[in-house]
Write a structure and sequence with these properties.
2 domains, transmembrane helix, 80% helix, ABC transporter permease, mainly alpha, 23 helices, cell membrane
């Protein structure tokens, strides 16, 4: 039997969508889509922010690569520096694509699952899975269209600036002026990546939701657990590929160790450098894909473990911890953690790989004065990818706002005073941010250890460099900002009557 809250939610959705049986049977139009976008404005706002930023960066980066190719063919004087810049841009563009796809996918999944009761209502009224998919895709297209228009409008101005930004960092004496040569093709290429990701993420999430009966979905309206338990094997392929890529130079170094004679020949030095190359970056991206595909149990377990180690007997902390542990199994919580992990792990992992490689390479006979990029260089180079990840964190907070408001209302009715509710909202952000940083630190340590193992045949010692300063300098402000963000987003709920919030949740 359905609970009172679930029945109330059904009535609320009925009033929102004003959907009769005849509507469900075939009279689908944009009216329902627009009404649902308005009714769930906070959820869809997070999706729109992600789409605008990701589409803009993908389009601008793609156009900048097209402009770069144009200058490469002008004269022999600019050919070599432009080729170097093209190689760097390709690597950065790939990173933006991967992180953009992950953030779009996670954000759309979280937003759709936040609305799963409304989708279940449509099924109860007679909608087929295909009709629900078409209607949801229509809503996504409504948001993708203005996001793409913004991207196309801004990309001409951003493309030249992006090229000048990287050419200045690489000390390339070439000024890039925007040209319309190849602009439509380059712009459409960048937009197509974001559009394809949005469509695939929507279709896959709705397919997972379709495995459950509508009544079962509605009955779980009050649960924070995700609709389906992630299968542990989803990300194993990406995980194994990432680890294999990290350890790929190991046989090369073993060969050099067996055949070396105290010092390495220039060809051997070249083999060492090419074996290491950009492997850690691709490995980090594969590990992030593995986390996004099957990281639910990891995120939940890490949240449980580290919060259990906090020596606090405060009732406020116990409540905040229990709520966070329950939410850690939900897709919305996971989308925020994964976006933050991507941001920290990208820089931390590269710092660990670069620092460990530098220490090891300087111990190899015949190789001296090896250096690696620091934190500022990585932030300078991967700013676009990091911006996409940070926007994903912001979107996750926006999508989860309704659940936090409902929890605070229930706690208020249970007897919590405004000061305690404010403290709980602050701790909610603290726990989310800390979980993401801990997972990123664990992945960084794994990358550093794997890099050190690769050099074992050459130097016969393990010297792992962990970027503690980066995690302290960047991690603490992120935790503070996250805590303040949850407090600020919860303030409107604290000013409202908890009865009014509950009435809105159950449809009265």
């Amino acid at each position: 039997m359905l609970s009172f809250a679930s029945v109330g939610y059904l009535y609320k959705q009925r009033n929102v969508v004003e959907c009769t049986h005849e509507d469900v049977a075939g009279e689908w139009n944009m009216t329902w889509a627009l009404r649902d976008l308005k009714a769930n404005g906070g959820i869809w706002a997070g999706v729109f922010i992600v789409l605008v930023v990701t589409q803009t960066l993908l389009c601008a980066m793609s156009v900048s690569m097209g402009v770069n190719s144009y200058y490469q063919g002008l004269s022999a004087k600019t050919r070599d520096p432009v080729k170097s810049l093209a190689s760097a841009l390709s690597l950065i563009f790939l990173t933006v694509i991967v992180l953009g796809c992950l953030v779009i996918k996670q954000t759309l999944q979280a937003s759709i699952r936040q609305r799963r009761q409304g989708l279940a209502l449509l099924s109860l009224l007679g909608a087929t899975p295909k009709q629900i998919l078409v209607l949801t895709l229509l809503q996504v297209m409504i948001l993708v269209l203005p996001a793409s228009l913004v991207a196309v409008a801004l990309s001409p101005a951003l493309a030249g600036r992006i090229l000048d930004w990287y050419s200045a960092g690489m000390r390339i004496p070439v000024h890039f002026a925007f040209t319309w040569h190849g602009f439509p093709r380059s712009a459409l290429t960048g937009l197509a990546v974001g559009l394809a990701t949005a469509v695939l993420a929507t279709s896959r999430t709705l397919r997972d939701l379709g495995k459950m009966t509508p009544v079962r979905v509605v009955r779980r309206a009050e649960e924070s657990e995700s609709i389906d338990r992630p299968r542990h094997g989803r990300g194993l392929v990406s995980l194994f590929l990432g680890l294999a890529l990290l350890l790929l130079p190991l046989p090369v170094f073993a060969y050099l160790s067996r055949n070396g004679s105290g010092s390495l020949e220039p060809k051997q030095v070249q083999a060492v450098i090419s074996a290491v190359g950009s492997g850690p970056l691709f490995a980090i991206l594969l590990l992030l894909i593995a986390l996004a595909r099957s990281g639910g149990p990891v995120i939940s377990r890490v949240t449980q473990l580290w919060t259990a180690l906090v020596p606090s007997s405060s009732a406020v902390w116990r409540i905040a911890r229990s709520q966070a542990v329950a939410r850690s199994r939900d897709t919305t919580f996971g989308s925020t953690v994964i976006a933050l992990t991507a941001c920290m792990f990208l820089v931390g992992g590269l710092l660990a790989a670069g620092g460990t490689s530098t220490i090891a390479m300087n111990k190899v006979p015949g190789i001296e004065n090896v250096t690696s990029g620091g934190t500022l260089e990585l932030l300078y180079g991967f700013w676009a990818a990091l911006l996409v990840a940070l926007v994903g964190v912001i979107a996750g907070f926006a999508i989860a706002a309704r659940d936090r408001d409902l929890d605070l209302a229930l706690l208020s009715i249970a007897g919590a005073n405004p000061r305690q509710l404010t403290a709980i909202s602050i701790l909610d952000g603290t726990i989310v941010m800390t979980t993401g940083i801990i997972i990123a630190a664990g992945g960084t340590g794994l990358v550093g250890l794997s890099t050190a193992m690769v050099y074992w045949p050459l130097i016969h010692s393990l010297s792992v460099i962990f970027p503690w300063q980066f995690f302290l300098i960047c991690g603490l402000p992120i935790i503070v900002v996250g805590s303040l963000a949850t407090m600020l987003t919860a303030r409107p709920a604290l000013m409202r009557s908890p009865i009014a919030i509950l009435q809105g949740a159950i449809g009265e």
